[in-house]
Design goal:
With 287 residues, the protein is of the alpha/beta class. It has a single domain, classed as Protocatechuate 3,4-Dioxygenase, subunit A (Sandwich). It has six helices and 14 strands. Its cofactor is Fe(3+).
């Protein structure tokens, strides 16, 4: 999860923490749809298995490749990378299906790096960071409204992102716990202003099976720089989204296929030294 290929702790630590979050149900904030009945399970799982069988038939997969595939599945389990693999290569399709029946602001994938229990802040807010936190000072500001235009007083913006080297706190050894993470409560007009640092692009962990598969296939392992956000208000559907930055060289080759044109920010100088700022409003639909 850094801006350079690295041999270090990416896969092991990130995989273990992401798996634990998923096991506790902390890696998804979507509304529950209830337990699937046996007919639904048979239909969906059957279709997925038939897709794999078709790939075997169509591409004449032999036992050497089949055994390599089994070893890869074992490696994904041993490193705890199932949340990473599923969020990178499948979640964007689930999100697209969900978006068909949703209104309000544009969403995208959650990803595997959300953590519960972060600092509770009140707008205007500065995210927790080191005294010498590197990177360009960045301000994200805006307003949270309902679909009828009503400002949503007390809405919250749960925000997290990498540091200037591409590391997420809680999933790498370098940043301290809670670094560049926080839950910001908006003011009485639903407005928020959050000071932080501009994040960096990064690769998914290259030392684990997901990264190795990605490189073996010749696919880009990079994610463009982005902010993760969960925007919530009582009685409204939480918007799960990411905000990207214009000019990022990886916008069109995001390994997670999560970028969307209306989620790209164009920060402008504030006149306060190197600080830049973007304004972005959110619209939440009633539950």
């Amino acid at each position: 999860m850094t801006t350079t290929e690295h041999p270090g702790s990416g896969a092991g630590l990130a995989g273990a923490n992401a798996t634990e979050s998923a096991r506790q149900g902390l890696s998804s904030r979507r509304a529950a749809t209830g337990a699937a009945d046996s007919e639904r399970i048979a239909t969906v799982v059957g279709a997925a298995l038939e897709g794999i069988r078709a790939a075997i038939r169509d591409h004449r997969v032999g036992y050497a490749e089949f055994d390599a595939f089994k070893r890869w599945l074992i490696d994904v389990s041993d490193t705890g990378e199932w949340p990473l693999f599923l969020d990178v290569y499948l979640e964007f399709e689930v999100e697209r299906v969900a978006a068909d029946s949703q209104s309000g602001s544009t969403g995208t994938i959650l990803g595997p790096f959300w953590l519960d229990g972060q600092a509770q802040l009140t707008s205007p807010a500065t995210l927790p960071m080191r005294d010498d936190e590197p990177g360009t000072p960045f301000v994200l500001a805006g307003q949270v409204r309902g679909t009828d235009g009503t400002p949503l007083a007390g809405a919250t913006v749960d925000i997290w992102h990498t540091d200037d080297e591409g590391w997420y706190s809680g999933f790498a050894e370098k940043p301290p716990a809670g670094n560049l993470r926080g839950v910001v409560t908006c003011d009485d007009e639903g407005r928020f202003e959050i000071r932080t640092r501009k994040p960096a692009p990064y690769t998914i962990p290259l030392d684990g099976p997901t990264g190795k598969l990605t490189l073996a296939a010749g696919w880009s392992p990079w994610r463009p720089a982005h902010l993760h956000l969960l925007v919530a208000a009582p009685g409204h559907r939480t918007v799960t989204t990411q905000l990207f930055f214009t000019g990022d060289e990886y916008l069109d080759s995001d390994v997670a296929s999560a970028t969307k044109p209306d989620l790209v920010l164009d920060p402008q100088p504030t006149g306060n030294g190197a600080e830049i700022r973007s304004d972005y409003d959110f619209v939440l639909e009633p539950e």
